Amino acid sequence: MGALLGIAAIVTVYLFYVLLNPEKF
């Protein structure tokens, strides 16, 4: 369970980063 929560947190942070910096993608 802990691993899944960690992965979910990483994906969430990555998505926020992409939304805040769309020009880099």
Largest sheet: none
- Class inferred from helices and paired strands: mainly alpha
Strand runs, count: 0
Average pLDDT level = 92
Number of helices: 1
First-residue to last-residue Cα separation? 31 Å
Q: Specify the overall morphology.
A: rod-shaped
How many whole angstroms does the radius of gyration measure?
A: 11 Å
β-strand percent reads under 5%
Residue ranges: pLDDT <50 for 5 or more in a row? Answer: none
The share of residues in helices is over 70%
Helix/strand order: H
Can you give a write-up of this model?
Helix content is 76%, strand content 0%. It has one helix at 2-20.
Compact overview of the structure:
The protein is mainly alpha-helical and 25 residues long. It contains one helix and no strands.
Short descriptors:
25 residues; 0% strand; mainly alpha; rod-shaped; 1 helix
Helix/strand layout:
Layout: H1 2-20
